[in-house]
Design brief:
The chain is mainly alpha-helical. About 45% of the residues lie in helices and about 10% in strands. A hairpin with a 7-residue loop joins strand 4 and strand 5. The protein starts with 8 loop residues before the first helix and ends in an 8-residue tail after the last strand.
């Protein structure tokens, strides 16, 4: 298999910084806007250091990255080196009190289908996806574990499908647990 495209956290940081500057926002205000869906539903907001740290970090937490991409109104595939900013499929529309999350169980099912069709082991599939992905991490997706970037993008690139196919929308009210929506994100 040829080398998979690479999602760039640095490119995401640069887009966030550019948009922030164009709108005349401080990092604190921009991050507060990105975090609004989290804080409305009782979750912990993003930290300025988390967002600013993207310019040098090799990995970022999945749910937070999705909120950043949502704030920009872009697609995750648009942060691949050399890709157009509108590459990939649009993320599902979510309401102001909803949070977009990675649907790891759906991702696991798709990976397992392709792996089985190709007649490869989890270890062989992981090796094709590259750095930061192990057979164990692929198998653990069926448990609903949290995902990080750029690893989740390597998985979707291996599948040849946009990340939007592997997202879910949660409605969380203060003090209540996550409830999958009936929309495009589906449930677990």
């Amino acid at each position: 298999m040829s080398k998979l495209p690479t999602f760039s956290l640095t490119a995401l940081y640069e887009a966030l910084d550019s948009t922030r500057q164009e709108r005349g926002l401080t990092w604190a205000v921009a991050v507060r806007e990105m975090s609004e869906p989290f804080t409305r539903n009782g979750s912990r907001p993003l930290a300025v250091s988390t967002v600013v740290g993207l310019r040098t970090k090799p990995r970022g937490e999945g749910d937070g990255i999705l909120q950043m991409i949502r704030w920009l109104g872009r697609t995750p595939e648009g942060f691949v080196d050399g890709a157009a900013s509108d590459a990939g499929a649009p993320m599902p529309a979510v309401g102001p009190e909803q949070v977009l999350r990675i649907h790891t169980r759906r991702l696991h099912s798709a990976l397992n289908l392709k792996r089985t069709a190709l007649g490869v082991t989890w270890a062989q599939a992981a090796a094709e996806m590259g750095r930061g992905i192990s057979a164990r991490s692929l198998m653990n997706l069926s448990n609903g574990v949290r995902m990080g970037f750029p690893q989740v993008m390597r998985m979707t690139f291996w599948l040849g499908l946009p990340l939007a196919r592997f997202t879910r929308i949660t409605n969380r009210l203060r003090g209540a647990g996550a409830m999958p929506s009936a929309g495009a994100g589906g449930g677990e």
